[in-house]
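Course assignment 3, question 2. Fill in each field.
Student: A.L.
Task: Predict the tertiary structure for the chain below.
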Amino acid sequence: MKNSGSIANKEDISSANENIRFIDELNKTAFEFRHLDQKKSVELAQKALDLSIKTGYQKGQGKALLNTGFYEFTHSNYSNAFNSFSRALHIFQDIQDQEGIGHANYNLGLVYLRIGDYDNAMEVHQESLRIRKELADEEGIASCKSQIGYINSQFGHDEIAMKEYNMEKKR
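Answer field:
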């Protein structure tokens, strides 16, 4: 009898791992399609979100919300984008996924920028930059610095902006 329970547990674990791989693949494909076929991208992301919720896979939920948020952002649905990115941020915070937190903050910063809330945009981009530095994510660091530079230019802090853009003149 003990062996049959053991086999059932192995099957459950195997099934759970397959679900996770499938959800991760849906999210990866949704991300890859975000510029090529946005309708397909959001459909895949929604499928990943639904399955992630059903299976309790929080990281999959967070990534799916980032993908759906991107779709909403590119369609100027800033309130919906903000809600998706905020939900993703809370999920990533709950599971202590620093990479996810960095991505969610960065995307929230883009929404804040688009609606002209430069103070909040600066705050979340700086938090994203801090995380990206901890993770040694060079591409993420560059993206954050670019946004922080842009925000500084909007405040009239051109010297700081140039430094963030890494275009400071050498003396």
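Instructor remarks: The chain has two domains: 1-96, 98-171. Residues 1-96 form a domain with the Serine Threonine Protein Phosphatase 5, Tetratricopeptide repeat fold (CATH 1.25.40).
Grade: pending
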